[in-house]
Write a structure and sequence with these properties.
The complex is a heterodimer of chains A (568) and B (357). Chain A contains 26 helices and 16 strands. Chain A is an alpha/beta fold and 568 residues long. Chain A folds into 5 domains: 76 residues, NADH-quinone oxidoreductase subunit E (Arc Repressor Mutant, subunit A, Orthogonal Bundle); 55 residues, 3-Layer(aba) Sandwich (Glutaredoxin), CATH 3.40.30.10; 210 residues, NADH-ubiquinone oxidoreductase 51kDa subunit (Rossmann fold, 3-Layer(aba) Sandwich); 91 residues, Ubiquitin-like (UB roll); 90 residues, de novo design (two linked rop proteins). In chain A, strands 2-1-3-4-5 form a 5-stranded mixed beta sheet, with helices on one face. A 5-stranded mixed beta sheet of chain A has the order 11-10-16-13-14. In chain A, strands 8-7-6-9 form a 4-stranded parallel beta sheet, with helices on both faces. In chain A, strand 3 and strand 4 form a beta hairpin. Chain A is globular, with a radius of gyration of 23 Å. In chain A, 59% of the residues are buried. Chain B has a 5-stranded mixed beta sheet with strand order 2-1-5-3-4, covered by helices on one side. Chain B has 357 residues and is α+β, with helices and mostly antiparallel strands. Chain B is built from 9 helices and 16 strands. Chain B has 4 domains: 73 residues, Ubiquitin-like (UB roll) (Roll); 120 residues, 2-Layer Sandwich (Alpha-Beta Plaits); 59 residues, N-terminal domain of TfIIb; 71 residues, no CATH class. The longest helix of chain B has 19 residues. Classes of the chains: A alpha/beta (568), B alpha+beta (357). At the A-B interface, helix 5, helix 21, helix 22 and helix 23 of A face helix 2 and strand 7 of B.
Amino acid sequence: MGTAEGWLFSGYSVTNEDIIALWSDQLAPLLPILHAIHDRDGELSDAALRDVAKGLGHPLADLYGTVTFYHHFSRAPRSNRSPRVCTGPVCRSHGADEILVSLDGAVAMPCPGRCDDPVPVLIEDRVEIHRDSHVTTPPSALPAPNPAGHEECVFRHIREPARASLEGYRSHDGYEGLNRALQMGADAIRDCITASGLVGRGGAGFPTGAKWTAVAEADRSPKTIVCNADEGEPGCFQDRTIMDYDPHAVIEGVLIAALATGAQRAIIYLRYEYPNTYRILENAIREAEGAGLIGVDALGPGNPCYVHLRRGAGAYICGEETSLLNSLEGKHPYPRNRPPYPVTNGFEDLPTAVNNVETLAVVPKILVHGADWYQGLGRSDFAGTKVISVSGDVSRPGNYEVPLGFGLLELLENWAGGAPDGRSIQAVTMAGLSGGFLAGEDLNVTLDEPSIRAKGGFLGAGGIMVFDDRRHMVEVARDAMHFFAEESCGKCFPCRVGTQRLHERLEGTQGPREAASWHEEVRDLAAVMKATSACGLGQAAPLIVESCVKYFPEDIDAHVRAGGNQNV
Amino acid sequence: MSDRPTLTLDDEVIAFSPGQTLYEVATAEERDVPTLCYDPRLEPFGSCRLCVVEVEGIRNPVASCTMRAEPGMVVRTATESIEKYRKTLVEMVVSENREVTVDPLRGYASQELSNLVDRYDAGAGRFRGAQSGVSFEEDGNPFIHRDYDLCISCNRCVRVCAEQEGDYAISIKGRGFGTQITTEFDGELRDSSCTFCGQCVQTCPTGALADRKAMRAVDLPGEVEETRSVCPYCGVGCSVDLLSKDDKLVGIRPAMDGPANEGALCVKGQFAFDFVQHVDRLKQPLVRSADGDLVETDWDTALDRAAEGFRSVLARHGRHAVYGVASGRTPSEANYIMQKFIRVGFGSNYIDNCSRA
């Protein structure tokens, strides 16, 4: 497959028509066309959008609206050259605001998933890390060795040298799961995955075996595997580490999923903010194609599977599977109404399994070591492991693979080194931001859904941000709600208006200054958002304010009394 | 009846047709389920969430407009908690707009939000905060007022433009509270693919999109009267409701129950009615006097003069000197009469219709 970059190096000046012609017959062409033009020009000009609309037969007004939905498509000339600075919760406590002011023409961006290595700055296609006036471009951090010697699954071989290459991958069980899968056949693969107890690791926790069975039994084709690599939740960066160091594990998982469901095509949808990961995945796919693992006989003679890599353009909601599918199809990335679900009406309205990166990376190991082995990795009745991203005020931020049911405090104190010297942990977030805060006695939970849900939050994709006793928790809550308000897609009313109103009330610029009315408004907003929002974003966003009220009532009351500019 | 599946709606067992949504079932059973993003002509969108109902076995309330009825469902349309959510939602929507009360001349659906505010007593001014939407009053087109300060981002305008008209002239830009209805590159409607059919105006539930021509009459005295009529422009026969104040035609609305148009109109039927009361409008037939001036006369005289003219042409030049072109505005029956008139009356096959041009 040719690329626009290849042409650029040859000295030929690539036209919009060239780019459109290159992609228009391929799967999910809109995003790659826009990216190729954007990379070439540093912007998406009116003229370029007119060409794309004409070339794809896409209504221009709709294309324009869709382009404006994404953070990282620049519309002003050369504006992708301006630095974009993460102002997420962890980066703000590491000087993000000062960096934003100090860099010429810099703009704020939502969390790009480098919470273990603050503060990331995105310039064109490059991620720089700015810290203490130093600028570096380090690769993702390898996960630290498991401090307690627990048996790992996802990270089992990730620290082996050259693991990202096909040769390195093959030297430790690489593609052995696929070999087993080819011998087992689709039904036995699904039975094995079902028996392992594996559930989706992206946060929703749907049983993977059941999802694959629904796709396998759906009667229309072609079917598609979509790997959701749009890791947009602030505080979650496990998928980046997996893809950077073990990309073939994800590809192998994709191929096994295709075999198990009867899919012959797969798409990896990677978030925009991971440009290094894009190159690593692109390379791994090319290697796998070269070895015949992807292509015309990938799943046995005459049984093809093609794997396509697509890049998002900066939108948290695109991690929601139906928004992601709309994004791939070039539509406005609103979530779809469900039912019907993607297993019957997914990509191009055809049966589709959307699986998260970590889920797919687990699959080959289950096939190699067996369902019982995986099931037994968890504590008590919980199956398997979960990679937890720990960041913020701990001595050793990073990704840790823990048995499900593992103690939160053991992870924070013993594995991640606890709060910095002389400090204590005041609160942590769950599920990145969307699971709200845990604090005080409630930190004494185990890392599994029942335990955390009993406290009002959820484990979700397994991101934990730690805030020590220096942090002002109402301000953290305000910033978190700002994120949800910025990222709300704007389709459903409770989320579009609710996230805005909750943010204003946490900011203190609007809303009652009298405690009882403030609490009543916040309670009513939270209740209607949780009950009636169309997708998980709006349903989960109120947990931040609810848990802040629960754990820090005095701080909240002081905040309400202090008030802001009242419009009353 | 006995073959139809059933479900339980507010403790009553109800038969429904497969494929119906819960909203359609509930409405057929005369439940007044509130909506703001719903237009029966459009694909269900599910954004306002006002139509949520409780379905046993499903944790959260579901949007009845997008949920298909299934046999055995147990549905409740107006429990105390559902009604509380609806009231809160209406209060939230009110809080993002400059005003709620708008003149009904703005458009067919323009009272939907203010009616819900009354129904839920939701004008208490709770949830104060920033307002969404930025009006585009400087759009100089003569037909469509773009008062987005009143917009609630229900997308009905965008959807009717795409789904009903196929024009795709408008879209949504941005995200979240910053969502804004726009055209390509934020331009004026006349620079877009807009055909000024006015369908966006008529489906807008808040009056954010408004009929500029009708709004000229907002301050005229008198009540608005509606008179059902048929659009005179073409042969389709779109039903319209003529809006008048004090016997003066002030605006036109598509009739949602019009059998030929089901609520649709084109720019002419929707906006081009000034001729009705124009000073230049001919109300009497005119014939030329001996010195060439046009003078008013009665119909008999005028038709006699026309017949006389045709006869003299036939006499001088023969039947092929006559060529008939029927108007595209006429119905089939009139077209039939016209071709008879040319063929039998003049003996010529020179008959055509302007719609062929």
